[in-house]
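Quick look at the format.
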Amino acid sequence: MFNFLANLNPNDLMAALEELRASAAQMKCIEERMAAIQRMLEYEFGSPVRELPAHDPRNLPLIAKLTAGRVDVQAALGKPATRGHMANLGDNPADLYFESRGKRVGPYTLLAGATLDLSFALEALEIVPDPAGTTVQIFFQ
């Protein structure tokens, strides 16, 4: 059963061992590079949160034109919105209030003709228009 060991040259074994060590060092470098790329992507796009459902491309987005009011995004999509944008189509600014995890943040003044990309989890959005009126289009997934 172990007859093949008798025919092996010790120099060949040492060369194979050195190749294994070199490839292990190279794999360590690749692993460190991958970790650096992962950190860079997490800084740019954030790290995934397990309790937040991921976007499913089979589900239709929430698209609407609103003049004022509160939109329960989580009820409409079945999950908080994690991507999308809000665009002010009117000629006047609109104040936006964002709600997520029981916190309300705002007002954010969305100027006429401006667009705001969604870079956070959004459960509800409230739009308070300028007294002269405005229209805000939303696109959430």
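Next, a different chain entirely:
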Amino acid sequence: MLTSGLAKLRGIHAFDEGASLPEWFRRQFHSAEPLHRYSEAVRTVGGMLGVAFGVFLFVLFAWVISTDGTPLVFGVPAAVIPLAVFGVCAWSARAFAQWPSLAERRTARARSERVFAVGMIPMTSRYMVLRDAGVLFALGQDEEPAGIAWSRIEAAGVSSSQFGVGLTLSIDGDWYDVPIVLEVGGRAASAWSFAPVGAKAALMSAVEDALRGRVPLHVS
């Protein structure tokens, strides 16, 4: 996470049941039906990563063919270098997914709050903060936080993917899909986890545990 947006939430405890949701919250999360927007986001991100990897391989093979094999760089076949760089980048993305959120993790632990990063990738400035009275959604440091009392949430549903957990909320008759990529200081989506085996189920379990008993919850 690139901002210290959690710091701005200090002292915010009011959850007005009659307050309208901020426009940014409606714009980013409103869904035509439960988990529809999240499913589209998963397909889009997965497709983009697949296309990017396909282009990478195409360029690599075209380079090898055009050089009549592959030249040597310090005695190493040049084609191995971009493959090694790709592998290191993929490993780093998983190993250090939590590093940008160290400040947020300290803030969450100091307040004994459960905080989840909202988005499809770990580098995000959006947060979901669970409190006794309700749930807070924050977008960076410049937008007004959205505070929603638990009693205002009519139903909630969760579904998992390799990019995290899709949380859908029924609020005032409308559906809002919130993608959760990791718990601050906790589990990350399998696509970004250093230990991807079981990570998908672990993050799903963390979200379920945080919500169970607070709102009517459906797991798919």
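Residues 36-66 form the longest helix (31 residues).

See the schema section for token definitions.
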